[in-house]
Write a structure and sequence with these properties.
Two copies of one chain form a homodimer. By secondary structure, chain A is mainly alpha-helical. Chain A is built from six helices and three strands; from the N terminus they run H-H-H-E-H-H-E-E-H. The N terminus of chain A is likely disordered. Chain A binds a DNA duplex through helix 5.
DNA sequence: TGAATATATGAACAGATATTCATATGAAAG
DNA sequence: CTTTCATATGAATATCTGTTCATATATTCA
């Protein structure tokens, strides 16, 4: 009895007890929303940036390619911890790596990463 | 015995067993790194974007001001869950609110939010 | 081939976090 | 002022996540 009836289906649960629901507002908003999976991917992307260790790694790689060991030393982290985080960063396509003998050098994948970080910095440092 | 001695102090622990540490690389990287607290704040900021529910809320608010109840209904969330997330978004200064009678309308705080999201979208939808 | 070194990875644990449930607050209408 | 309605909030819980520890993999050098 809230103006939403019939063919909606899937989940016919109430989510709030309010009676003042603006149905047309809701529909308009829903129309301009990206697909659920895009939203999910976007959240996942930001989640990767949302950790101090990973942000520090990304900043370290901002200007130069660095090997795992130097990263660990620079950031006061365990080699293992760095490796784990680098794996996450690589899976998210934020960094890439190349092998040089025994060492593996990591570097930022592209300029998207730099731009996203730069945007965030603007908000933080204003 | 790794070339780093004397006045460093604070934490004199080894973080990896590598002997091939490039000391000058490390120093250069450390110089161009922002302060720890800036990095922390930046990570905290992205952490807020790094959750599906909050991203969905932000997208819903992208084009229009919406009250809590409509948000809940639109996003298939509990009113309580929405409120909790809105609080986090507000504390991070990503949204603001105004009261209109019994309802509270939320809206994006500024264009930083839109730009950060837009940058993320570029990476995700490419 | 074998030893040494740099990196990767799996399991376990501790800390963080999103949701739910119950309830409090605050505005509005009678 | 009392009731009703919209929102806020505290506590509890289940889930997720980052680090550590132990160990595996892979490359170089003797």
């Amino acid at each position: 009895m809230n103006g939403k009836e019939g063919s909606m289906a899937i989940q016919d649960v109430e989510h709030c007890e309010c009676s003042e629901i603006h149905q047309n507002t809701i529909e308009q908003v829903l129309e301009q929303m990206p697909d659920e999976d895009v939203l999910y991917d976007l959240a996942e992307l930001f989640k990767v940036f949302g950790d101090s260790s990973r942000i520090r790694i990304l900043f370290a790689l901002y200007g130069a390619d660095i090997c795992v060991c130097d990263l660990a030393e620079t950031l006061n982290m365990t080699q293992s911890a760095v490796s784990h985080q680098l794996k996450i960063l690589k899976q998210s396509k934020l960094v890439n790596s190349r092998r040089e003998g025994k060492q593996v050098y990591y570097f930022l994948a592209d300029d998207h990463v730099r731009r996203i970080i730069a945007q965030g910095m603007e908000h933080v440092t204003e």
